Amino acid sequence: MAVTLINVFTVPKDKEDEFVKWWEKVKADITKQPGFISGKFHKSLKSESRYNFINVALWDNEEVYWKAYDKSVGPMKATLQQMGVEMTPALFNVIFEY
Predict the structure, then answer these.
(1) Boundaries of every domain in the chain
(2) CB 3.0-4.6 Å disulfide test: which of 4, 7, 23, 41 passes with 89?
């Protein structure tokens, strides 16, 4: 069953451009991972939002997501820490659509 990754980020204002450029590089690797279906990267319209960036991605299933996560999380966390970015990922199942 497909799962939805919702990953929220708190990015310091002075690091937003650097973060977006970094994410463009990261997504090139993510989209090549087995089980990746699609993704959308969002930026808040309000500058004072706690979570100013959100990544929403669909994966074939939880197992393939965790394999991709394990492969990339180390380098990602190190870079995010250097930029002062907080990341909070979570997987979800769709309950209903409307």
Answers:
(1) 3-92
(2) 7
Which residue numbers in the chain have pLDDT < 70? none
> Residue 72 has what pLDDT?
85
CA distance 68 to 35: 9
- Residue 9's nearest CA partner among 92, 72, 89 is 89
Give which of 3, 12, 32, 27 is closest to 81, Cα–Cα.
12
Q: According to the model, what pLDDT value does residue 74 have?
A: 82
Q: Please give, one letter per residue, the 3-state secondary structure of the chain.
A: CCEEEEEEEECCHHHHHHHHHHHHHHHHHHCCCCCEEEEEEEECCCCCCCCCEEEEEEECCHHHHHHHHHHHHHHHHHHHHHHCCEEEEEEECCCCCC
- What tokens does 62 get? 């939880």
User: Diameter of the chain by CA atoms?
Assistant: 40
